[in-house]
Specification:
alpha/beta, Rossmann fold, six-stranded parallel β-sheet
Amino acid sequence: MFASFSNSPKKIRVGYHWRNTDGRTDGIARYVNNITQSTNNSNVEFVNCASSKLCSIPFVGRFFFMLSLLLGSNIRKKEIDVYWGGAHKLPFLRVKNVSYIVTIHDLVWKVCPQTMPLMRRLTERFFFPIAIRNADKIITVSQSTANDLVKHFPFCADKVKVVPLASTFQESINDQTHSIIDTQYILFVGTIEPRKNIHNMLRAYGSLPMELKQKYKFILVGNTGWGNIKIDELLVNLNLTSFVEWKSFVNDQELSALYQNAYCLLFPSFYEGFGLPILEAQSFGVPAITSNISSMPEVVGDGGLLVDPYSIESISSELEHLLSSTEPRDSLSQKAMINAQRFSWKKTVNTTYDVFSESMNIRGG
C-alpha cells in the first residue's frame, strides 16, 4: 500500500528539471506540466533544480546537464526530498537522503531502434541504464512499457509502478463544438516521423475507393520530426493532394475541435509507450483505428479497431469497414467514450504523488 499524504508531517519538496517542458507541446511536455502544475494535493511542492547557467548553453544544457555537479548542489541547497526525472533521465551522482524517481515513457531505443535518429538512440542507450539503476522507484505510463522494461532489465521489477496517462481534454470537452473543417474527415495526430508509420497510413488511405476518399478527407496534425518525411512530396507522389490536408501546428482549442468532429482517428504507429492521441480522441466519443502491438491495444480497449501496422491491406480494410457504414462507428463511439473514462489526470496525478510519498521511506537507499 502507498503511504497516505494525510500522515505526511510536511510538504514533500519534489525537484525536477525545467527543460522537460521548455517550449515544447509534445506528449511528454504535457505529462510533466500536468504533474507539476496540479493543485490536487497541497502536500507536494515542486521545485526547479535546473542551473540557468548550464541551461543557457544548448549543447551542454541538453546533453551534459545530468553530469553536472551544479544539479547536486541545487538539490542540496533547495532541500529537496524527492528528485523526479519526468522523462528517462536522472543525475549520475546521488545526494544523500534524497529519493530518486524516474518516469519511463517507452523503450523505443531498445524495442524499435530503427525508428529513432542515431544521436537520440545513443543518448538513451547511455543515460537510460544509469537512470533506472539510480532510481528508487520507476513509473511507467503503461503495462506494456513496464513489461518491456522488466524484459530487458529484470533487476527493475520490484521498483516499477504503472501510472497510466489520460486525455488532457476531458475537463474542457464542451469548450468548442463547431468544426473547423467543412467536410467529414479522418484524423491523425502525432509527430511526422518514421515511428508513426506515415507512409503505410497514407498508402492505406489512398487505396480506398474513390467515393470514400471524396466523402472523407484525411487531416494530419503534427510537426515534422526526424526522418526527412516530406509530406507535400509524398502526397503528390500518391495523388492525394486533393484529399489530404496537413496542419503542422494547431493550438489546443483547434485540436479539441478537430478531435470532437472527426469521424475516426487513424493511428497505426509501429510502437508507442502509451499513445495519448487514442484517449484524446476517445474522450470525444471518436473511435480509433490503431495498431495491434505494444501499448495500443491496452489503451484503446474495445473503443476502436486493431490493425497490423506493417500491412497496408490490414489498415485499409478496417478503415473501409468503418467508413462504409455508420453502424460500426456508432457502436464504437459509445465504447470509446466509456473506455476514456477509465483514465483521468486526477487519478494519474494522485497516484504519482503516492509514489513520491512512498519513496520517502527509502530515501538514501
